[in-house]
Specification:
heterodimer; A: alpha/beta; 7-stranded mixed sheet; 5-stranded mixed sheet; B: about 500 residues; alpha+beta; 4-stranded antiparallel sheet; 11 helices
């Protein structure tokens, strides 16, 4: 378990927390290396690996040609032979180009070799809209990977979680899709300096409340917390639960919260249809929480359209604080 | 092509405008750029120019109606063109717009129109548009959900809409969901509805009385007793009677009856004899009050108490004994109760020529009073035989009208039931009734302040004070007591 020490007050950005995790792990485990497009001299498309090539050298911070397939294949192979690589795909949209390696190779190896092989890599990739990067650079495709047995999917929402989950992911023996969010990179939060891990498969109640549970992922945790703050002014106490890892999922924490509040709103940025919210809704409906549900399980999610380039349209394509507030309010009042 | 006339958005923050006046009438030609109507925002009033040349048609908004901006309010048609039926529907009420506004709900015009056309309740929709604005898609989604799944598949009989939580709580508390009103959408019962529900106290059916119609003998008794009690001011006097002598005489009579093979002499028979003896000496107790107008007390003494025949004693019930205290009371005793009320009804007290003693007999249906006629002239054995016969026939329901008619005085004996003392209501139109209690051994203070045990009996006379004063009643009672205590006096 992470030890929260005196320097817990130290604030880092989400981006810095990730960099610190990489830095610390590379410093203490020579099997760990970074590979991706522009991760070296350029410091990564969003600056996550800035300065790392200078510290660890080009052999451990490897710039690749523009080939996501190549990156995925390289980390799969390296992991199979005992390394603990951390690949980076500049935009989650381009994981599509790496799918064969990830889905057909990396995910399957451990099972196909009866546990005698393992693929301990982390593939970091920023997802999400809000940066005006249009339809091909804004997607949230986490559920594609959730659907593939053998892969783990991690989605941190805070700097603290990002560092702890990344360290846990690097040390995990399975291929992990580590989904970051572009808009979260600059958000700040307390992060202890010493290395710590957050076990995969542990959700966290980010805010306690009695009237309604919001289960949110990634940046929607932040928006839900803001919405909860607004609703608190009206006397509606919202509980916000962050699964933190979609796979494995900490069902118990979610179910316990829903039993407590009797109402649940699921919020994620990915398109609603086929999104992770459907999975969560089904899990909740099938759990002990069923007898405590006092409203239908609702989902707020991205519209089933490509993310528009137009900033206004882009804004309205995915859940925002005000839409969360409005839906949560109706739900808490039993109007749904 | 029909060109729509649209409510213009004149200011950045403007959401609605009010139509002040149409400057063109429907069917009137209009040129592009010509003023078409005036509208008013909360800041300005402006003329709206026609955006096309043609004929004004399909005006959907009347003056003073509030309309959301961008709403179509009319059409400009080309000559010969007809307005499509579907768009020609007038918006009869702007109320729904204002309703949605007043709830602070934001609705897009197309969603508004769609909702109105399909009767969708906007209040039940959660807007997914910016700021929770209700969009066309929201309305369509609601329509899809309600029309297909709900309207066509309403809950089956005995089923209720309730959330799982509401069902669980109801189950835990043993409540019936069917009795709980739901506050959720479409009447769905939610947890709070169950938690705040207080079950009507378990309906324990109030024990229902067995209903017996008031008719026949019961009705007659009710009417006559009510009339008597209301009309005749009762005075009641009680005496204690030492029944030693009475018992002794009765024992002797009993022995005689046995010896001669005659029916035994009951206490009642002996009391009847004593009462008749006393009545002979106190005619006021054997009298009746009659209205000279012929109204009240129309019953002659010879026909009194036509009870038991099943026709009921309808006579008198409403009229008889209708003597109010304000009416004239004339007592010939010279004591001067000669009140002239001014009502003018004169009454007469008839001192009756025969002493016919009625004996109240309890029967299944009620009470009947067969009469021993001219009891003063009959021997005790004869009276005993008659009383036995009458009582037996009364219980069998075989009394004739003659058996119950003509009583001039009534004895009610509840002694056999162990009743010590009671008061009876006068059997109209008679003047008095004697209530006879049980004979029981009692401690009595005898001469020399000695306490001795005697068979004692209490009897209470109820008398109609209009006829009988206390002293008259007392003298009668004193004589009766004397006769009962020393039956030898009956030979007097």
């Amino acid at each position: 378990m992470p030890k929260r020490t005196d320097n817990v007050r130290r604030e880092l950005s989400y981006l810095e927390a990730i960099r610190e995790a990489l830095w610390q792990e590379m410093a203490c485990d020579e099997r760990v290396f970074i590979i991706g497009e522009d991760v070296g001299v350029y410091g990564g498309a969003f600056g996550v690996t800035l300065g790392m090539v200078e510290e660890f050298g080009e052999e451990r911070v490897i710039d690749t040609p523009i080939s996501e397939y190549g990156i995925a294949g390289a980390i799969t192979g390296a992991a199979l032979v005992g390394m603990r690589p951390v690949g980076e795909i500049m935009f989650m949209d381009f994981t599509t180009l790496a799918m064969e390696q990830l889905v057909n190779q990396a995910a399957k190896m451990r099972f196909m070799f009866g546990g005698k092989a393992k693929v301990p890599f982390v593939l970091r990739t920023p997802a999400g809209s809000g940066s005006g990067a249009a339809a091909q650079h804004s997607q949230s495709l986490e559920n594609w990977f959730v659907h593939v047995p053998g892969l783990k999917v991690v989605m941190p929402s805070t700097p603290y979680d990002a560092k702890g989950l990344l360290l846990a992911s690097i040390r995990d023996d399975n291929p992990i899709i580590f989904v970051e969010h572009k808009l979260l990179y600059k958000t700040k939060g307390p992060v202890p300096e010493e290395p710590y891990t957050i076990p995969l498969g542990t959700a966290e109640v980010k805010r306690q409340g009695r009237d309604l549970t919001i289960v949110a992922t990634s940046i929607m945790v932040k928006r839900s917390l803001e919405a909860a703050e607004q609703l608190a002014q009206e006397g509606t106490e919202v509980e916000v639960v962050d699964p933190r890892t979609l796979k494995p999922l900490d069902e118990e924490t979610i179910v316990r919260s829903v039993i407590k509040t009797g109402r649940v709103l699921i919020v994620h940025e990915a398109c609603k249809t086929g999104g992770y919210g459907g999975e969560l809704a089904a899990i909740i409906a099938g759990s002990e929480a069923f007898d405590y549900l006092d409203t239908p399980i609702l989902r707020l999610a991205g519209r089933d359209i490509p993310i528009p380039y137009n900033r206004t349209l882009e804004y309205h394509t995915v859940p925002q604080v005000e839409t969360i507030v409005e839906t949560a309010r109706q739900l808490a009042r039993g109007r749904v | 092509v029909a060109v729509p006339v649209i409510m213009p958005k004149l200011e950045m923050a403007q959401e609605t405008a009010t139509v002040v006046e149409w400057l063109k009438r429907e069917g009137e030609p209009v040129e592009k750029g010509e003023p078409l109507l005036t509208v008013e925002t909360d800041k300005v009033t402006v003329e709206v120019e026609s955006s096309a040349s043609g004929i004004l048609a399909g005006v959907r908004v009347a003056p003073q109606q509030v309309v959301p901006v961008t709403e179509i309010i009319a059409y400009i048609l080309q000559p010969g063109e007809e307005l499509d039926e579907s768009v020609n529907q007038r918006i009869s009420e702007s109320a729904s717009w204002q309703t949605s506004k007043s709830q602070g709900q934001s609705v897009t015009p197309v969603a508004q129109r769609l909702a109105e056309a399909h009767g969708v309740e906007l209040g039940a929709i959660i807007g997914t548009g910016p700021g929770g604005r209700i969009t066309k898609a929201d309305v369509e989604a609601t329509m899809a959900a309600t029309s297909r799944l709900v309207a066509e598949l309403p809950p089956g009989p005995g089923k209720v809409r309730a959330t799982p939580a509401a069902r669980r709580i109801a189950r835990e508390r043993g409540l019936n969901l069917a009795q709980i009103a739901g506050s959720g959408p479409r009447g769905r019962i939610q947890a709070a509805d169950v938690l705040t529900f207080t079950p009507a106290p378990a309906v324990i059916p109030a024990p229902t009385a067995e209903v017996v119609p008031l008719r026949g003998m019961r009705r007659t008794i009710a009417e006559r007793m009510t009339a008597s009690y209301r009309t005749a001011p009762h005075i009641t006097l009680t005496v204690r009677v030492d029944m030693s002598g009475f018992e002794e005489a009765r024992a002797r009579l009993k022995a005689k009856a046995e010896a001669t093979g005659q029916p035994h002499v009951s206490a009642t028979a002996l009391i009847v004899k004593a009462v008749a003896w006393a009545l002979k000496r106190h005619p006021w107790l054997n009298s009746t009050l009659r209205q000279s107008s012929g109204q009240g007390l129309r019953q002659s003494s010879g026909k009194a108490l036509r009870q038991g025949s099943g026709q009921g004693l309808r006579q008198n019930s409403g009229q008889a004994l209708r003597q109010d205290s304000g009416q004239a009371l004339r007592q010939d005793s010279g004591q001067g109760l000669r009140q002239d009320s001014g009502h003018g009804e004169e009454g007469e007290i008839h001192l009756l020529p025969e002493i016919n003693v009625g004996v109240a007999v309890a029967v299944e249906e009620g009470l009947i009073v067969p009469v021993v006629r001219q009891a003063d002239r009959k021997g005790v054995a004869e009276i005993a035989a008659e009383v036995n016969d009458l009582a037996a026939r009364a219980r069998e329901g075989r009394l004739t009208l003659a058996d119950v008619a003509g009583g001039t005085f009534t004895i009610s004996n509840l002694g056999p039931f162990g009743i010590e003392q009671f008061t009876a209501i006068i059997n109209p139109p008679q003047a008095a009734i004697l209530a006879v209690g049980a004979t029981q051994p009692e401690a009595v203070v005898a001469e020399g302040n000695q306490v001795i045990v005697r068979p004692m009996m209490r009897m209470t006379l109820s008398a109609d004070h209009r006829i009988v004063d206390g002293a008259v009643a007392a003298r009668f009672l004193a004589d009766l007591r004397e006769a009962l205590e020393a039956p030898t006096l009956l030979l007097w």
